[in-house]
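Figure S7 source data.
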Amino acid sequence: MTGADKISRTEFATIASLMRELSGVTLADGKRAMVAARLGRRVRALRLGGFAEYCSLVTSPEGAAERDELIKALTTNTTRFNREQRQLDHFASEVLPGLVARARSGGRVRLWSAGCSTGEEPYSLTFRVLDQCRDAASLDFKILATDIDQQVLDHARAATYARSALDVIDPDHLARYFEPETPGAMTRKVAQQVRAMVSFGLLNLLQPWPFKGPFDMIMCRNVFIYFDRETQDRLWPRLARMLAEGGILYIGHSETISEAESLGLRANGHGMFRMQNQPGLAPAAQAATMT
Ligand SMILES: C[S@@+](CC[C@H](N)C(=O)[O-])C[C@H]1O[C@@H](n2cnc3c(N)ncnc32)[C@H](O)[C@@H]1O
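Tokens for the predicted S-adenosylmethionine complex:
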């Protein structure tokens, strides 16, 4: 054991409290070994004597860059293509046809994947959009995808995935929405026409959001599950306010929204909610812009 492997109870409490303040992510006591392992690498890379020094650094004004590293190391980025197929089917059959009709008649359509990780979620959505609307890129149809972690966003923009991650993708989608296979390559890249539909942006959900919405569909899955109840209760109303009237919110299957009805959200199947009445907003009345 070195100083980089041992984290005291007090040091863990400091890290857990900082992580919660920065990202909303709650680290239960059982995560101590995970924190020691993941941040131990940072302690070594920075050639620090141990976690006491690391805690001083990340809580100091000079520690801004390392605070980003800490978030990167301690968030869970697990994702995959076509996760929660039932929701994607619902989106394709119940939601998308109306949105495509609106876009084709000159209207505005906005979708948001909040907590998009390495991009599999927004690209899975985009495959469905292009299935029904090949010319979506020439219409006012935009997909925003955001995450707190710059590293996963870089991966998402690069759009190159291990071939083993593509087994869950329909062969027709693979053929149409990925670049041709390079013989012997272990990865494959999402095609330009799909990538061009998605705008990726760095966004901490805890902080102010640089857009007004409304969105016709928000997918925020397996993100709130890492937040404590108080953070969740603060953020669900903010997400709900971003939905257009009639807009759909998809959440993870282990997530719940307390008092959804009071936010105007009517449960519409497992992990799916429809916005009933959004005071003062017309559907997709405003653009969602993100640089
Ligand atoms: C487990 S992944 C979920 C990815 C995808 N939504 C899915 O369900 O497959 C959770 C993502 O939420 C992001 N995240 C955690 N805290 C966040 C915050 N405060 N603001 C924005 N994103 C956050 C993480 O960086 C991570 O990429």
